[in-house]
Amino acid sequence: MSPHTPAPRARRRWIRVLAIVGAAVVPLAFAGLTMASLADTEDGIHRIPAAIVNQDEMVDQTAPDGSTTPVLAGRLLVTELTGTDSPGMDWRLSNAAEAKAALADGEVYAVLTIPADFSASVISLSGSDPVQAQLSLTTDDAHSYLAGSVAQSLGEGMVRAFGSTLTEQYISGMYTQFGTIGEAFTQAADGAGQLADGAAQAATGSAQYADGVASYTRGASSLSAGLQTMKRETAGLGQLGAGVLDYTAGVSQLSAALTAAANDVAANPGDPQKLGTLQYLTAQLELAAAKGTALGDGASGLGALADGIAQTADGAARLATSGGAITSGARSLADGNAQLASGASELANGLQAGAAQLGSADATASSDAASVAADPVGLDVTVANAVTGIGQVVGTYLVPLGLWVGGLAIFLVVPPLSRRILASTAGSGRVLGSALARATAVAGVQAALLVLLMHLVAGVSWTLLPATLAFSLVAAAAFTAFHQLLTVGLGRAGLVISLLLVSLQLAAVGGILPSQALAGPFAWLGGIMPLGWATTGLHQLVAGGDAGTVVASALGLAVFGAASLLVSRLAIRRTRRANALGMLLPAAP
């Protein structure tokens, strides 16, 4: 036995122990690494980058009192999203061009655009023609399916919260407007009160006026009777009779004029000229009454003539007294009518102001206004490179994972090297190529079957079949070369290492969930591992994303596979040298 024999036995013993330990911890690695990568997802969502493009323009809002207030609703929204306590994603301010480029490159996962008319739409809620304010959210499924869904959910929640604030302000404004309408109707009520007071005063004046007219009528009747008596008794009295006749005629004229003036005042109680005429005639009648009394005293011995003169004087006095009552009643009536007119004007103004505050709208306009008030802010979502369902996204992960597990299965069934091949005189490159050709052929069949399954079940477009198949073949070849390296260098223990590596890669691969949402080092590990390259490239293909990313992923896999082949060749040389020295570590039993 060679003196070097104990060393390889000890080495095989340690490798076997490590393989057993590795096999025992594989399930723990799968579960533990996955849970560790997702342990910080709640805070990780706040690390997902997103851009805000604020194109809003300032507008002035005019208050009912005529004062104006500048409104910048877009800036308020930006401040809310970019603050330290902002909800959801890591929002950052950008312009339209930079945001579009960042979304295409995967630097941000969503772009929220605030349009130029956002503030104008917000304040329109308090006007007669309210318009729903619109926000625009753009995501890209080519970088992360769940990031777009998270952004959409956050956007909808933000819109609901902002809309609720606007609705509260709208309702508050309605109550303020109701207060203004109440003031207008209070003014109308004051006018109605004045109308009532004026009507009462007019009624009082009318009663006074009616009493005066009645008294005047009685006085006129008494005066007329006295004048008739005087006329009969003065027929043969000569100069006294002539004087009495003149007196009687004058009083009759005054009586007729006073009657006409009273009728004019009754028709136009507020006319100052007619009131003045009535007052003048009343004064003249009072003077005639005084003269009639003196004449009666001078002719007291004339019997019936004296009685007639006394009756005439009494009637004239009553007429004079009634004239004052008529004048007072007419004035009171005029004042009452003026107050009625003032109250009616104030009532009309108050009702008109209240009507103006209420406004007018048809049923359609009212329904539209109610709809906008209930949902004042809308969200327009645009998804770039949209996938039709979660099945397509999952397929872009299962295919690379299946190829990795398939490579592991190949070398469980087909040992890459045997003692006979290692002992042959063929070159290491030929030995490696022979073993790799068989394994790669099987891996190619695996890739074709997985790609067909993805197109059939997940609904991926058949026009992408050449591209998805070619990319999957590159990934299959790279994974096969790597598994050959593991088995050449470590034997079957290398397959346990493969399981541990796939556990780590699955925990670090982004795409469904953005890498920024993963905890600790998992956020960047996915970008440097072959399974991450494969999932990223295939996901970009299916979603119609950036062709440069697909090419870069394919080149990364090709370099990874070539490096695995180079190291495998070096491992074969070392193994053959050890075999020649009697230190061979069998790759397979």
Automatic annotation (TrEMBL):
GO CC annotation: membrane
Main location: membrane
Signal peptide feature range: none
Keywords (A to Z) from UniProt: Membrane, Transmembrane, Transmembrane helix
Compartments, record wording: Membrane
Domain of life of the native organism: Bacteria
Topological relation to the membrane, as annotated: Multi-pass membrane protein
Organism encoding this protein: Protaetiibacter larvae
Transmembrane segments: 394-414, 435-458, 464-482, 494-513, 547-567
Protein name listed in UniProt: YhgE/Pip domain-containing protein
InterPro entries found in the cross-reference section: Phage_infect_YhgE_C, Phage_infect_YhgE_N, T7SS_ABC-Transporter, xxxLxxG_rpt
